[in-house]
């Protein structure tokens, strides 16, 4: 929902007439203009490391693999050559919010860019495809599942496509930390488009994953650009907690850090939904404007939490890894990990969401040896033996049609996803995306038990390698920055602009967890949904009606989600202070809506007026 709001803003710009054609004096074509001249056309003064080489490769029609850190400027690498040609460039991304943000910025600057995505609506997508067909659009943003749409394919194949940019390209790696099956569509799509130049972009690929990206996408002698993984404006700190009372000390340190204004806005990543809720509640009790976010929340609750964080109504979001992909909030000052994440790649991707504006920011890992048990259990659950793969293949064979094909739901569980990938590696079947986010499995013959056993070993070994790498990083006595750079194969020296890390600069901003005063938490009443009387239900209806007008055409969650309105109806606040105490009500809500809400509450008494009864 929050992504949809941003996409709807993009939709409004897609309808503008202003970029139907660029002025002849500013049209830039390939062939006589240098990358520097094209850069000036977009209003930039200089290339960042690696950008010029990537742009030149696209201008020359050469495949490229671009590995740059988060915030390193990957988008310019395909935007600039895309605008430099009358042909069509396609940018593939799994992140609706990120596509919407880029498209919004470019259309606002008058560039011929459109976006096709679920959530925009049929009319908007038809208009975008019309602009693709008649040449008004030079760049089209889309998600990978669009290549399963005949209307989309008809539109893009009606044009000459000279560049296909694949953002978040690590999603094509089955063994990576963020595999997306819809990326399996891309090799076939590349050929159907006439084999344009392909630019694969990622921020988190180890050399091993980078090699798999190259093989999966069929890159031909690609230019490989590694601009370096260092984030000079970030400092990296690890604080370890052991023994009795470690959770209380961890909460105290986290609260101490987030009460410092220089560390906000902030993201706190937790390993479980329960921890997300508990940590958010603890921070609120300590006086921090925090909200929780995880996949177990209702859609409007998640959307409201994201909206509050993005607009500054909540300064801290406490979330599982369900939060963050495609969230472009440049002023995040700190990212905290409540527990050790599953891999160094996941850690660095999440930590990299701090300081995207280039100003000083910090990443803090709160690590305990007890976290390792959770990671071991996770690996054990994902460990698959050849017998389990064989049983899985037999199960699908019984369900396949006479042609040996079967459409299945996209696996949600790691175990099933790994079984599927191992069986493919062992030659049992080929996997292709199917409409509706599903997968088509086409049987090739008997499972090769030797290859299956080898693939099982590879999957198991990769899991343990990831575990050992994140354990070593978390408890190392050497420079954190150096450890991250080495993990990603970056041999360049680190160049911190300020503090480096807790190892190199131990006298930094973090106090010892042993010296922080631990105070009992002042807990608010919350958690379970309130019980509503018939009169309360009437008040909720009135609040919803008011919310519709207050939203002014925007999604309702931008004002408040349903649970917040229900909490207001149950509490029936009589003043601003009481209203501000209700969970889900922040300073922005109070300043904008307190008068209206308190008036509505006052006009809906909890008990009906007896004088209004018949016969009295």
Question: Can you describe what's shown?
Answer:
It is a single chain. The protein has 616 residues and is an alpha/beta fold. It folds into 4 domains: 225 residues, P-loop containing nucleotide triphosphate hydrolases (Rossmann fold, 3-Layer(aba) Sandwich); 149 residues, P-loop containing nucleotide triphosphate hydrolases (Rossmann fold, 3-Layer(aba) Sandwich); 82 residues, no CATH class; 69 residues, DNA polymerase, domain 1, CATH 1.10.150. It has 22 helices and 16 strands. Strands 3-4-2-5-6-1-7 form a 7-stranded parallel beta sheet, sandwiched between helices. Helix 3 packs parallel to helix 4, helix 16 packs across helix 17 and helix 19 crosses helix 20. It is globular and about 70 Å long. The N terminus and C terminus are likely disordered.
Structural key phrases:
616 residues, alpha/beta, Rossmann fold, 4 domains, seven-stranded parallel beta sheet, six-stranded parallel beta sheet, 22 helices, 13% strand, globular, disordered N terminus, disordered C terminus
Determine the fraction of residues in helical runs and give it as a percent range: 40-55%
How is the biggest beta sheet arranged? 7 strands, parallel
What structural class should be given to the helix and strand makeup?
A: alpha/beta
CATH-defined topology of the largest domain: Rossmann fold
The strands making up the biggest β-sheet line up spatially as: 3-4-2-5-6-1-7
The average pLDDT score comes to 82
Q: How many β-strand runs?
A: 16
In what range is the share of β-strand residues?
5-15%
